[in-house]
Specification:
Layout (H helix, E strand, L loop, with lengths): L1 H7 L5 H10 L1 E5 L4 E3 L7 E7 L2 E7 L2 E8 L3 E2 L1 H6 L9 E4 L3 E7 H10 L1 H27 L2 H12 L4 E2 L3 H8 L3 H13 L3 E3 L4 E3 L1 H4 L2
Antiparallel strand pairs: 1-8, 2-7, 3-6, 3-8, 4-5, 4-7, 9-11, 10-11
């Protein structure tokens, strides 16, 4: 799997490849395992080699989704902390069984100055995350919650079905379960979806809009 990361991000320097192999470790995590914990110093940069990780902030018993990390991605907020000996400002939890590449912080900083391909990986990670966060901010600022909810359901539907609880949707969208339940009932009244037991069916008419 380390070789897949090297190929995916065009790591070309032979010395860097050797250092990656010598200094990194690979760990496996089950669904629900904590990968990054808020308010702890970042000692190791974690890169997802396989699986899916949810990165979020928690405030007064409410969770706000920041983004999901997928194959060959790392948390930008953790990456930035590597350069300043900072504490994490987010939590990250495995949404499914994951394989993680772990690189000690001291190497992350050194490689950024020593190797062009690692510097490119760092810059691309920041750029991708910046674009995602700008889009997310625009949605929060300009798109009504009911529209964000429906767009989110469309993005998560498999064969027009979304298997998420009202509480899970509330966490993903940074609001309360009561608000989500009310909006879902309104969407059902408008014939956009049907609420079932532990699943939501997106109606064909709504899909064609």
């Amino acid at each position: 799997m380390l070789n897949n990361f090297i190929k995916e991000h065009y790591i070309l320097e032979e010395q860097l490849i050797n250092e990656l192999k010598e200094n990194s470790t690979i760990t496996t995590h089950e669904k629900g395992d904590i990968i990054i914990k808020n308010n702890q110093y970042i000692k190791v940069l974690k890169i997802v080699l396989q699986g899916k990780v949810r990165v979020y902030q928690e405030n007064e018993e409410r969770e706000i989704l920041i983004y999901y990390l997928k194959k060959m991605e790392t948390c930008t907020l953790s990456l930035s902390a590597c350069f300043g000996d900072c504490k994490s400002t987010v939590n990250a939890i495995a949404k499914e069984k994951c394989t993680i590449l772990n690189i000690p912080v001291r190497h992350v900083k050194d490689w950024n100055f020593k190797y062009k391909s690692w510097n490119t990986f760092t810059i691309n990670t920041f750029r991708k995350s910046y674009n995602h966060l700008i889009n997310q901010y625009s949605n929060l600022a300009f798109q009504p919650l009911k529209d964000r909810l429906f767009d989110y359901l469309l993005s998560k539907a498999t064969d027009s079905i979304v298997k998420k609880s009202h509480q899970e949707l509330a966490k993903e969208l940074g609001t309360s379960r009561e608000v989500i339940s009310r909006l879902l009932k309104n969407l059902e009244k408008n014939n956009k979806l049907h609420l079932g037991k532990k699943e939501i069916l997106i109606l064909e008419k709504a899909l064609s809009l």
